[in-house]
């Protein structure tokens, strides 16, 4: 006689275990990415080590390798997260958008990112200063396409008489330069302010100065 096969169905507890494992994985990856940002900023890509990142994350080195394989892959993941966050600032920009609302939101978004995640700006700056060896393909394709798309919208605004800026690429560069400097040169700026660190008023102070200044230059204030 043959035994009848039993059908094994997943239990509710199996689903809980799976979700818990996913949560742990996501949490560990987030901790490692944050630690990697700090390590790469302080030690540079060349000087950073997987052991140093693991130590900052408070996790075994084997865990870092498990999630990200090697230093190069982890570095690229950090850069990808930075770029994805930054590009979200102008996602909804179209020729039908209100230029004043779009530009003000973009400046506020960039400033907030600079004050909340300064290490990301510092790391990106270090990569570009070094010739962008890990971002060259991205900068010559996706980033270039993104910038061309946004500047074309602003050129249309100019042709429609909505903004006074005839060279919108210079406007993008100006916004990047003025907002990201608060992160990239944090030590210099807080020193000039005679502080040891930014406080909760500094982001608003920067926005209150920069936004009217930029909007006036665009003929929007």
Model description:
- This protein has about 220 residues and is mainly α.
- Helices cover about 75% and strands about 0% of the residues.
- The chain has eleven helices and no strands.
- The chain has helices at about 10-45, 50-55, 60-70, 70-85, 100-115, 120-130, 135-140, 140-160, 170-185, 185-190, 200-215.
- It is globular and about 60 Å long.
Secondary structure elements and pairings:
Blueprint: H1 12-47, H2 50-57, H3 61-68, H4 71-87, H5 99-116, H6 118-129, H7 136-140, H8 142-159, H9 168-184, H10 186-192, H11 202-217
Largest sheet: none
Following the backbone from N to C, one meets helices and strands in this order, namely HHHHHHHHHHH
Low-confidence stretches: 1-6
User: Quaternary state, please?
Assistant: single chain
Brief summary of the model shown:
The chain has 221 residues and is mostly helical. The protein has helices at residues 12-47, 50-57, 61-68, 71-87, 99-116, 118-129, 136-140, 142-159, 168-184, 186-192, 202-217. Helix 1 (12-47) packs across helix 3, helix 1 crosses helix 4 and helix 1 packs across helix 6.
